[in-house]
Amino acid sequence: MAALQKSIDKRNALINATIELVNNDGFHATPMSKIAKMACVSPATIYLYFENKQDLVNKTYIEVKANYTAYAFATYDETMPVEKGFKVIWKRIAEFKLKESADAMFLAQCDNTPMIDEASRQEGIKHLQPLLDLWARGKKEGVIKPVSDYMLYAYSINPLSFLMITQNRGSVKLDKEHLDQAYEAAWSSIKTCK
Amino acid sequence: MAALQKSIDKRNALINATIELVNNDGFHATPMSKIAKMACVSPATIYLYFENKQDLVNKTYIEVKANYTAYAFATYDETMPVEKGFKVIWKRIAEFKLKESADAMFLAQCDNTPMIDEASRQEGIKHLQPLLDLWARGKKEGVIKPVSDYMLYAYSINPLSFLMITQNRGSVKLDKEHLDQAYEAAWSSIKTCK
DNA sequence: TTACAGAAAATGAACGTTCATTCTTTTTTA
DNA sequence: TAAAAAAGAATGAACGTTCATTTTCTGTAA
């Protein structure tokens, strides 16, 4: 009840400020005072919503990761054939990285640094389960290569990072045809050759 | 003359300590005092070799990146046909990420965070030029897809990050066959379909 | 070869600043 | 009006960097 009275807007403002500042300066170069200022809040107020700085970044990570995966799986359901399922998930992930590039950058930073607790990292991985399940099904059906999930992810999903880069530079315009081509490359990396 | 007397061993020890500590804790969570201790040197001594902490990490980045690309291009020469050239480079990069996984982790962290100066980042990219030249040649010959270098890199080289991961977990043994398969996936992502 | 003087290199302690967090007080809410 | 929420100032620890001093090195004269 007490907690419920605390404004959800303020919490969101803190999460968003964290994402933006950490993207620009990195976690340890982002002081609590700056986060507070950007969220229009006193530094002390942060501690009403989060235990400490580490907790703030852990929670931010989990929240962004949850948004990411919710977006990724929004148009997918488990009755789809493997190839179709992979396609809709891949397309949604591409869309997310294009539209929510700040969120995507934040996740990339979290995934490549010791910034996040191991526990939160594990928690974040859980949200990807539907994709891992799809791959397991694909392997059983002989449609997907029998290699580790790390490798499948590295070859089909990680490459989408280029969407954030080109997004930020604005150098290359990305039309539907290019994206379709990228999808074909991703799919042919993980499907079994016939 | 003065500078030459300063021990190159000490400089190396500082660079190596930086890599190891930054890999474990992140740049801003790694105090100069800890780097000094690991290199068996006084904190003040660091400032005889580097201007400041930022300079230390910039120089470390450039040095590691130079090692990486030197390794990558060691067996390549420009007279090779495009496909062959790409193959030898790709294989060397895979080897590097397996054998020098600490260096590879460090580079991944630098490439995904605001830890490095923009100038040093640019400097690091320069070392990749032979690969970009190879791709340019490949595009001209119609062997390589006419897409941005970012995209080629994202689809053929970035996925090798899974080597560091599986390396660290030790969960999946990686035999020659798997690696060859990974190479085929990389190549077919960037070659033009016939 | 030894002794030694001057310079370079290295050191540990100290300084000033920054930052996460807490404390006390004020404001808002119900 | 009492309890919750928020605020700003205060606190203490940690850090990057510098300073004053000591140690090590190098070349030369006995």
Q: State the total count of DSSP E strands of chain A.
A: 0
Summarize the helix and strand pattern of chain A as letters. HHHHHHHHHHHH
**CATH fold-level label of the largest domain in chain A:** Tetracycline Repressor, domain 2
The profile of the biggest β sheet of chain A is: none
What is the approximate shape of chain A?
elongated
User: Averaged pLDDT of chain A, please?
Assistant: 92
Cα distance spanning the termini of chain A: 59 Å
Q: What is the beta-strand fraction of chain A? A: under 5%
Number of structural units classed as domains of chain A: 2
Structural class of chain A: mainly alpha
Low-pLDDT segments, ≥5 res of chain A? none
Name the CATH superfamily classification of the largest domain in chain A. Tetracycline Repressor, domain 2
Q: What oligomeric state best describes the polypeptide chains here?
A: homodimer
**Largest interface, C-beta within 8 A:** A-B, 39 and 39 residues
Give the % helix of chain A: over 70%
CATH architecture assignment of the largest domain in chain A: Orthogonal Bundle
